[in-house]
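Quick start: read one record
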Amino acid sequence: MRKPVLWGIVALIILCSGIIVKASIGHPGIDILEIGTFIVLSFTLIALIFYAYDTNLLASIGQSRWQRESVLNATYEMVGI
């Protein structure tokens, strides 16, 4: 469920960044350095999104493991008289 949403967000960031870069190339006041900085910031945002997703995934795996290990095991025995 989370993966399609994650890829949708990344696709929207790439699409919006592409539109902004394409629109700003023709402007005389925009320097190529500003466009490059914007592209680097866009890639950084995408990397941070994947980092947050993977960190959340590892935390949920660790939490589920901790919950499984903290469950007490109970056994019983029937003895005939």
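The two ends are 56 Å apart (CA to CA).
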